[in-house]
Design goal:
This protein is α+β, with helices and mostly antiparallel strands and 122 residues long. It has three helices and three strands, in the order βαββαα. α1 runs antiparallel to α2. 13% of the residues are buried.
Length: 122
């Protein structure tokens, strides 16, 4: 029997330092919401479910990071953008502020929140 080329040892580790800005699209105006009647209602319900799914995904990501190595920030956007949470190492503070974000109706403008994120990381 030969010796393995690679040997692996498991040991506790910490995440590397990271500043993470999460941009959340809060618009419910996407999809086919222009139609009247039940289709419009279904589209709104679908958008609400999508928003809830996105929020749960962000909560999951936040629960998996190790602090204080990782600091989180949150920008919510649709027609306008807003820094909901500045960089924080407190997952509880981040989750509280995320919980206060609600869906909004508006045209999605991706460019300004992305530049805001770049400025925060700068």
């Amino acid at each position: 029997q030969t010796e393995p080329v690679v040997k692996v040892a498991l040991e506790p580790w910490r995440q590397a330092q990271l500043d993470l800005v999460i941009c959340l699209d809060t618009s419910i105006g996407y999809g086919d919401g222009s139609q009247v009647g039940s289709t419009s209602l279904q589209s709104g319900e679908q958008a609400g479910r999508s928003f809830g799914t996105a929020r749960r995904l962000i909560e999951h990501v936040a629960s998996q990071v190790q602090t204080p190595e990782v600091q989180l920030a949150l920008i919510a956007f649709e027609e306008f953008h807003k820094v909901v949470c500045e960089f924080t190492a407190s997952v509880e503070e981040f989750r509280t502020r995320l919980g206060a974000v609600s869906p909004a109706v508006g045209e999605v403008k991706f460019h300004p929140p992305l530049w805001q994120a770049v400025a925060m990381l700068g």
